[in-house]
Specification:
Oligomer: homodimer
Helix content of chain A: 25-40%
Shape of chain A: globular
Largest interface: A-B, 53 and 53 residues
Number of helices of chain A: 19
Largest sheet of chain A: 7 strands, parallel
Distance between the termini of chain A: 58 Å
Number of strands of chain A: 16
Structural class of chain A: alpha/beta
Chain lengths: 458, 458
């Protein structure tokens, strides 16, 4: 019997855990699900005979060490800040690790140790990063196979509500760790723009957006998503003069979030004493300098930021409850945590609505052997979740993870050290299997637009 | 024989290591100094019979583990990002740890484990944090002993050049890890202002400064330094309506740094390919949006930021070399690292000049038993380094560390778990000893100013 330890039973986990348990009998697996919230872990395992729920505690090294020691493979779904600890313990214990998080510095640093210990560290094996990377690789492979060269590669992803949803004015539903929504853009963003590297600091990320049209969904907005240059290296796409990763939201999200960042609310470094008992209006007031003008918090915020006192942004802030005489509640010690629980409550996915996950690659390829013919490829993946059931997000994150776990346990990925799913040994088989499960991109191939041509010539 | 492992042989370490070695024979110590740069470690040990230099590698857990295993006590002078790893290994191996870094989340989380293992984790035992905390405790103790209540506590610190130095236009010399200069303010800042909590995001920290007069030095500027609320809790000063920690620089530093933060240069998240070969002017250009106006990088930067094309800020940026056709050099992969090596080169402490370390507490106390008499205490510590020799910074960081190490090894601090030097068992004896070594504050006690009174009444 092979033993799988799933660390984290949060919103991204249900599909993964269900699939693992469903196949456990046939493949002779045993699945341990550990979460800080043991009741949540129990709910996921649902008394399956091949599964068990446990409490996890990332501050108790002995507990974590012994849980990892007892497993053959670990799936990491914890917040990214725990990844270094988990990866280190896995290497120490000689256990493989598959995660849906970005490969961070610690993963890179552990590469040599992992090889030495015969361990595979496989991060970025979820939806985004994960499915996006693998599907990008397949497009690149095809263009290169046809003798083409890629001039521009833009890759977008987002998890939102359906385009007709009226569930909330932000048209966003929380389907993953809201911490990542709150701290989005924190690292700033880099990308390649017509041959030149561009870098945007956090406080400008949400003000430098551009429109994206998603087939079947409609107009959306994109903001630059983290490190597109690392993405370019990962994809081995040195040839592309333009390389941008973007996050997709419905229009209006970014202008709101830009002002929240300017105000300073997304802060997970500073701890505020007695935060749960404080009222939101008092918390918001903390970010205003003494003597700001206006008779209400809302007016002072609007004046300080230089936005309309009655416009869309301040209206959405009010709807979120930032000016309410309501206690923050929860157990958070930072404003980022308070904001995350606020979003979790205000932007809860309605029981009657599906979520929507979107991935899109926009590629411009040139074929020197065909008289320099130019081609524009738009490959779009959209998937709706089951209302009240599994979210598209959980399916999109879980399916690639499951397939990765299976292949590692079957010995079909004999790599050791730290690798990404862009490795040819991984992405091909996983994409074939995902397609059988109905997770596929729709492609539109055509001629480049005038904007594209201007971009290429810049 | 007791074995001391010093992790890190950087700019803050010389005084610490010299003192440890000087006393090694008498106290039967053996001192191991480990640094990534083994030559630097060798230089510090200088073939002392009671010392040895080793290579350290924070990515090699086996090496670090065995080095810690061999020690009785560890002194951590590594960059703060390694503190969680070091602390965890110390707890695992049952070894005490004394550091000059802030107590971070990991230290807090390890408290229970440390108690279980009989380990003392003692961070914030350097200059700032360290000497500042201990000296603040002594003032608070005295005011309380006299029946007083503290209404306002402001605490400032900084390491700069002498007031008459003309070594560089920024009047700053690098005497500690320049990474901390580059990333200063990153966490934002919180403080208590006339009873109200205020929070400033990073991109506003350097634009909300105020003047401070330092006796014997002259006018300086202060910006809010990190988490003053945590500082208030550490000092047990719930009674104070105003509690601010500030960093001191000569006037002009903050307005320059504010624009560098706005531009986005201090970024240690994003990696830029081939950074060492790129020219500084091209690096700076990365932070400008496409199509920025102006015929030179300098003009485009000035226009984009909305600052004078010919004023003091752009002049200092030019002096730093940000518009030069010079390769970045070094081995850094992020702009923050590039900026750190630039500062190290441009702001090198001249061989012929001393550095200057300043700590200052400004306290307003009220004595209810004395007809509500108000008192203004200004306690200032200034210390110049030895030109070409040990810096004031290394002395200020090293002396409290040495005393902490000695007390722990002598069994005079029988605490276990994670503690700060504000513990009465620690700060009293350490301050007495520091005073014998000539490290003392000068106090001026007088009446509050009109500004103070307005502040208290706000």
């Amino acid at each position: 019997m092979q033993s799988i330890l799933v660390l984290g039973a949060g919103q991204s986990s249900p599909c993964l855990i269900r699939y693992l348990l469903d196949q456990a009998e046939e493949r002779d697996w045993f699945v341990t699900v550990a979460d800080r919230d043991v009741a949540l872990a129990e709910q996921r395992v649902a008394q399956h005979p091949r599964g068990i729920a446990m409490a996890s505690d990332m501050t108790d090294m002995q507990l974590l060490g012994s849980q990892i020691e007892d497993a053959d493979l670990v799936v990491g779904l914890m917040p990214p800040r725990f990844q270094p600890v988990i990866a280190r313990e896995c290497v120490r214990a000689g256990k493989h690790l598959v995660t849906a998080s970005y490969r961070d510095e610690s993963m890179r640093e552990l590469d040599a140790d992992a090889r030495r210990m015969g361990v595979l560290l496989l991060p970025e094996m979820g939806l985004d990063p994960g499915f996006d990377l693998m599907s990008a690789m397949r497009i690149i492979e095809r263009v290169h196979g046809d003798g083409g060269v890629i001039g521009s590669f833009e890759s977008y992803g987002g998890g939102v509500l359906g385009p007709d949803s009226r569930a909330n004015p932000l048209r966003y539903g929380i389907t993953w760790n809201p911490r990542n929504v709150v701290m989005a853009g924190e690292a700033g963003a880099s990308f390649r723009d017509a041959g030149r590297i561009k870098i945007i600091p956090w406080h400008s990320v949400f003000s430098r957006t551009w429109p994206i049209e998603v087939p079947g969904v409609g107009p959306m907005e994109a903001y630059a998503n983290r490190d597109s240059l690392a993405y370019q290296q990962t994809l081995g796409l040195d040839e592309a003069g333009t390389m941008v990763r973007g996050t997709l939201r419905y229009p209006g999200w970014a202008e709101l979030w830009h002002q929240l960042v300017r105000l300073g609310l997304p802060n997970e470094h500073l701890r505020v004493p007695d935060l749960p008992e404080r009222h939101w209006r008092d918390v918001t007031e903390m970010f205003l300098p003494r003597g700001a003008s206006g008779t209400s918090v809302a007016e002072r915020v609007a004046d300080y930021l230089g936005i309309s006192r009655t416009g869309g942004i301040i209206t959405k802030m009010r709807w979120l409850g930032l000016f309410d005489r309501e206690p923050v509640g929860g157990e958070g010690t930072t404003i980022a945590e308070a904001l995350a629980s606020l979003l979790r409550r205000k932007l809860e996915l309605p029981e009657t609505e599906p979520d929507l996950v979107i991935l899109q690659h926009q590629v411009i390829a040139r074929y020197p052997d065909q008289g320099d013919r130019l081609e524009r490829i738009v490959a779009t993946f959209t998937r709706y979740g089951e209302p009240g059931g599994e979210t598209a997000m959980a399916i999109g994150v879980g399916m690639p993870l499951v397939l990765g776990v299976r292949m590692v346990l079957e010995g079909r990925i004999p790599l050791r050290g730290s690798h990404l799913p862009t490795h040819p040994m991984i992405y091909g088989p996983v994409l074939d299997e995902l397609e059988r499960e109905g997770l596929r991109f729709e492609e539109v191939v055509g001629e480049p637009t005038e904007d594209d041509l201007a971009e290429l010539e810049a």
